[in-house]
């Protein structure tokens, strides 16, 4: 296991759609036990308990991708040294946008929502997005996810009982506008999800995928990773067979959490332009 170094000692964890910062609770405990300072900033206005957001999802309906990125950029900008940035699902998309702004010592996009440029979305992704995308009226709404929908999107590799327990503890309504922004990014010349994938001066980036992930199947994550092939910056990809979208608590989550941290620490301390003075011109 990795331990903090003088150069990298802080981790920023960014949650995704239908979730809050609570979804990281196990990763926080694991990383903090190794001596890292772990921050889990919520999306703007969502720094509330799950139960409160279910009762009043107004802050969720107000979410926009750019304001989420700006919010996290301000937090990272106030830190004494660049942190490792990790994001799950839409948090993984936000992570990529933050690295594109030259923020962070390294980034890990955990089963990330796609940046602009990924052209094909499989049926599983479309089915997972259907609760929001089936109606244009949902663009400016916070749309609840039912137990059955959560079971398909997050809990498909665990028992019904375990999936229902995870839904009860973690699930909140999803931000319609955020999902619409990402889903139709390729039709928007000014899409908020656009990244300069040829940038050579960004921090190292790892993208991970789950073989049984219905929300962001491996084909989407690998297509996302391939968009960076024109860059000499460090880009990694790793797939976990049999894993779903529920990386916060699915059995075996420790393996993915440990690899993400070890990869990020090594990459940051050796290759990050925000950490070392000279970054080798090589791929990883």
TrEMBL record:
The keyword Hydrolase applies. Gene3D superfamilies: alpha/beta hydrolase (3.40.50.1820). Transmembrane segments: none annotated. Residues 11-249 form the AB hydrolase-1 domain. Pfam families: Abhydrolase_6 (PF12697). This is Lysophospholipase, alpha-beta hydrolase superfamily. The keyword Cell cycle does not apply. One of its GO terms (molecular function) is hydrolase activity. Keywords: Hydrolase.
